[in-house]
Design goal:
6 strands, Alpha-Beta Plaits, alpha+beta, 2 domains, two-stranded antiparallel ribbon, four-stranded antiparallel sheet, Arc Repressor Mutant, subunit A
Length: 193
């Protein structure tokens, strides 16, 4: 059985979670379709997509979706699991788009730095480059090649990005109160008073 931390706040979802939500949305479409031909078409598409999930990724995706309140599920005594989209999940199912991620700027900065560190192996260089470029594109300051900094809360956005790029094992997220060379970074973000 998957252990769930019910106290976790809502998080953004990665590629696998988005695929699973889309599949569940296909189940909703199936239940609304009156045409047997359309029902068989939807079932075929769902079946083809489910074949692409391995059990480990599927369980992790279900756990993440449950923690973010996108789905509800229960495990029966015989080990079968029933998974359904929550009402909130139905609303969020079509809103996932990594290219439109923006970090919200609060009225007042809390004085803390959000630091993303990553150590991606050379054989996965493409992930490393895409991750770095994406973080720069959403406004991160490149402190070092694999260390990027932002002043505003962005944990959800970072979780979503690293899940999308399947880079969780290579990325660390740190919240710090001070950084050397802080004046230069404050200047970059327009935080000098």
């Amino acid at each position: 059985m998957v252990k769930i931390n019910k106290k976790l706040k809502r998080i953004r979802l990665g590629k696998n979670q988005k695929r699973l939500v889309t599949l569940l949305l296909g189940g909703v479409a199936l239940s609304l379709s009156a045409s047997p031909k359309k029902q068989f078409q939807i079932l075929g598409e769902i079946h083809d997509e489910l074949k692409n999930f391995d059990e480990k990724h599927l369980k992790r995706s279900i756990k993440t979706l449950y923690e973010s309140r996108v789905i509800n599920y229960k495990e029966d005594k015989d080990g079968r699991m029933t998974v359904v989209l929550s009402e909130d999940g139905k609303k969020r199912a079509i809103t996932y788009d990594i290219d439109n991620i923006k970090i919200k700027k609060p009225k007042k900065w809390d004085g803390k730095w959000r630091i993303v560190l990553f150590d991606v192996p050379e054989r996965k260089k493409r992930i490393r480059d895409v991750l770095r470029n994406h973080l720069r594109a959403i406004g991160f300051f490149e402190f070092q090649k694999s260390v990027l900094i932002h002043p505003y809360d962005c944990k959800d956005e970072i979780d979503y990005i690293i899940e999308t790029y399947e880079a969780r094992e290579f990325v660390r997220f740190v919240v710090a109160e001070t950084i050397d060379n802080e004046l230069h970074i404050k200047s970059f973000f327009g935080l000098l008073n």
